[in-house]
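Why predict the complex rather than its parts? Because the way molecules touch one another can change local conformation, and only a joint prediction can capture that. The input here totals 1076 residues.
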Amino acid sequence: MEIDVKNLHPLEVRLLRHVALGEPITAGRIVDELGYKVGQCNQAFSWLSAKGYLVEKSRESRVLYELTEFGREQAEKGTPTQRIFAFIKAEGPHALPEIASALSLDKSEVGSAFGQLSKAHCVRMNDENKAQSIADELSGEFLLTANLLQKGLKGDLDESALDADEKKAMGRIAKKRGAASSPFKVIEREEIVYELTEEGAQAKEAVLKANITGEELGSLTPEMLASGSWKEGTFRPYGLNAPTSRLIPGRHNPYGNYLQWVKDKLCSLGFEEFDGSLVENEFWNGDALFMPQFHSARDIHDVYYIKDPVHCKEIEEPWLSQVAKTHEDGWKTGSRGWRYKFDHEFTRRQVLRSQGTVLSARQLPKAKIPGKYFGVARCFRYDQVDATHGADFYQTEGIVLGNDVNLKTLLGLLKMFAEEIAGAEEVKYVPGYFPFTEPSIEVHIKHPVLGWFELGGSGIFRPEVTKALGIDVPVLAWGLGIDRMALMHLGLNDLRELFTPNIESVRTRRGN
Amino acid sequence: MPKIETTGRLFYNLLGKTIDDEQLEEVFPVAKAELDGHEDDLLKIELNDTNRPDLWSAAGIARQLKAYWGKEAPLYDFFSTAEETFDSEGRELIIDASAKEVRPYSIGFAAKGHKVSEDELEALIQSQEKLCSNFGRKRKTIAIGIYRSNLITYPVHYRGADPDTTKFIPLGMDRELTLREICSEHPKGKEYGPIVSDSKVFPYLHDDKGETLSFPPVINSAHIGAVEVGDENLFLELSGTDLHDLLLTASILACDMSDLGYEILPVKVSFPEETEFGREITVPYYFQEPISCTLSQVHKTLGEPMSGDDAVAALKRMGIYAIYDEDTIWATVPEWRNDFLHPVDLVEDIMIGYGLGNFQPEMPQDFTVGRLSPAEELGRKVKDLMVGLGFQEMMYNYLGSKREYVDNMRFPAEKCIFISNPMSENYEVVRPSVIPSLLESESVSAHAPFPHKIFEVGKIAFLDEKENSGTTTRNSLGFLASDSVMGYNEVSSIVNTLFYFLGKEYQLSALEGDGRFIPGRCARIMLGEQDVGVFGEIHPAVLENWGSQTPTIACEVDLDLLMN
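Output of the joint prediction:
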């Protein structure tokens, strides 16, 4: 068996060094011989037993006698019998009341002590009714009591250590209960007897060989540094694999960290962040994106409506007129439009933002050319909440404006996202469909862990979108579905976990 | 997005060959289609383009793929045009003026010469459903009926009828019901009746002898309207509100049925007044205008210096006939499509036909400066400070219940943004504060070792009359700490440290009448005259509402107000 002496506490070391194979080891013995406190002793036993170095051999009942306060006083001043005998020996015969007042004792105490002394033929009452001594010294019986008291001062007395006379004497002066007026209290204690095991003996050998005494220095204290006492000793090596305690640090949320990382990536690729209000109106949420007002994705079962105020006060001009006209007949965008009567009340109806592209649309009128923008936008969908649908969730979206952007630069951009953000090994493009882009492209990637999946949707904004919002250059629009990668990144498989309120779950979540 | 099912037998037959799923998946992007599943002989296909209803059938997909493979398109020679009208041989559909106020248009055509098989009938019914529900907005703008033509005595009449006296036996029932009874008693009536039930008259289709065809857009009659496997002569009728969409849908169905082997027979439709295409339209009718785009527009959008001939060849692969002349590509829109709103729509077809794989990705050349938003910059600074103060960052949903955000918090509902069509009461309010989110954590985390120190930097929104939307969205910091000993002094110290490092000098003023906190142990954080936040000891009544038994402090700061 490999014995690592560094795993032994000084209490264990000293105990091991002290005992030998075959010897009974008891708390009483260790307390006596090594000066341990009972608690320390029990700790050492427990540790050593757990390591298999000590084994329990038997349990013994022990009777101990503990000096009471009353007994302590008698031990220090002497017992009444001692004091009375010594007094009349020195001062000559005295009446009992005189003795009582001279020694500050109770009359009854003096009476009972005198009775004992006279019974033992040490004193007698003379003709003047005064107590006088008739022996040279106190008889053994009284000395025995005094001796026991003196021993009791040093510590509890073990019944097994008393001789027959002492036991007899103790029987008279010790009580189990109500011992306040007795000199000794009887304590019954069960004591376990241990023995060193073979392994324990080997551990002892190892300790001796390593020359560890258990007297090595423990924690370094300011006092040791101030006094320089550390120079006198050696430091006890600590067990390196001792159990550690749990710390609860302040921490960023791992999902938040991931989103920050994505944002930083996009910034590094030259994109500027945009943001917006959670409450939108149908104009920006759909009309400005050239989704006809009767489009199925604008149904009551897809978008959350605001109860009050139902409508916003106004839609910004000239965008409202231009967009409305574009829907109706194409306005000046080159389109034939959707051929229906644009509803100016519906367009002011308020909804919770249902797609991040809203922010792209809102950015268009104020965008710089060339310009690149992105947003990580919280969106809301009328969906049953489950492992793959949240009531609200993040979408990552953006646009690129420039005179020279086109399908090929869109593909290049998607490739860059796929490689830089998703760590894709292979990229595949397929034609897609979005109401606000033409052409539309979906990008599928082969991820080292997730395999093939759709990373995002993209396209070139329709002229009906851009021209109506005052932009005359092509605009690439893209959205990335990064939730799946975030889940993978965090080792989760349920979208609801991303926004869990469970503190312990978030505290212990590692992320990558 | 529409999803269709088709038997492999029907689909491969239409394709003219059997190909395996891998090959299908490879070519499907041409139709913006995805193979969703293939079990036994049943193929499940998802179509992504909501503007291409012609693709929502096995025949339509097969037509697109065959064109891409270079097969000559079949000749659909049954379309009348503005210039040329086919003889309808007595088949006529007469629209009465009374229909105008309820559902103005009805058109139709007939087909013969093919016994409909079980999977063809299923395919037809599926097309009918997909077109009516996805393209026809759940029958609101398009409803299709299929009838047994040989039982019909032409002309067929479409009119507005009295809902209480007009009666017939509808499909699925064995007794006569009035139109109004159908709306309340028949399952289809309950579903689609509301489209017309506000009108004085209801749409009604019957033949010249008075035999009922149907009550559009609700239900067919149990006799003429009960098409069965083996029927050889069919009449299709489409009613609705938009003539373009109806004509296109009729064209799609006619082409599909022609592909299945039917001979398409024209029907003359007479309207009570002039329409965009005349008073009489013989259906199927080709109404689409040609579309064109310049070659330079193709170059600019696609970034590829292809020739005019390349573009024309690409369009041919999409089933579109085009010619190139003087920098312009002139295309004839196929009978079954009407999705060319803008020249860019033609450009996309050129892209798909040319093959997306033939475009090499290029990096955008323009130099731009990346930048985080000011809110994000400040948010990060605040988050770092809170983490340094030993707090765990949390992230929460922004939708919740009234119970959580209002009742539990003793917070005024008048400040909150409610949803008018919540899916469940668990998600009916936008959170007006981060604090209830943090307390929700407390309510589910009693087992987590204390102290709890959590925060979020996120958005909140509440009503604000001054804004155009009547609401405002704010970037907000909320933090919470709970432990057996936790009180005002702790939270005040944290606020003090936070504001010191944010470089903001604040004063505190008494916060009164805020039920969330213990009175006298909460404060407003003031930057000059501006109230930027609150903090204090959470009221035990609030803790009780959340089921928490641990003393808790909380603070919320409006970060937007710190940003200047």
